[in-house]
Design goal:
The protein has helices at about 1-5, 60-70; strands at about 20, 30, 35-40, 45-50. The chain is an alpha+beta fold and about 90 residues long. The strands form 2 sheets. A two-stranded antiparallel ribbon has the order 1-2. The protein has a two-stranded antiparallel ribbon with strand order 3-4. A hairpin with a 4-residue loop joins strand 3 (about 35-40) and strand 4. The chain is elongated and about 50 Å long.
Length: about 90
C-alpha cells in the first residue's frame, strides 16, 4: 500500500529520499543521488551545489554555471566540465 501511495512508486528501505536512477542505456541503475558542484578555481572552494535524482549530468551544466556566476557575482565565467555533461 505504501509503495502505491508514493508519488514515484519507489521506496528505499535504507534512505527514504534516495531514488533509483538509470545510469546507462542497458536498463541498469543505482539507488542514490547525483550531486552537482561548482568550484572556484582560485581558492578551490565550492561556490554552488545541487542534489538531484537524475542519473546523468546532461542538462545540469547551464544550471550549475548560472548558480556559480550569480554566487561569485561575475558577469561571465569560464566553465570546464567532463563529457558526462555533453548533450
Amino acid at each position: 500500500a505504501q509503495l502505491h501511495e508514493s508519488p514515484d512508486q519507489q521506496i528505499s528501505l535504507t534512505d527514504p529520499d534516495a531514488r533509483s536512477m538509470a545510469t546507462s542505456g542497458r536498463g541498469t541503475g543505482t539507488v542514490g543521488y547525483n550531486v552537482q558542484t561548482a568550484v572556484d578555481d582560485k581558492h578551490h572552494l565550492i561556490v554552488a551545489h545541487e542534489v538531484t535524482n537524475v542519473g546523468n549530468d546532461r542538462g545540469q551544466l547551464s544550471n550549475m554555471a548560472n548558480q556559480a556566476r550569480k554566487e561569485i557575482e561575475a558577469e561571465s565565467l569560464t566553465v570546464v566540465a567532463d563529457r558526462g555533461y555533453y548533450k
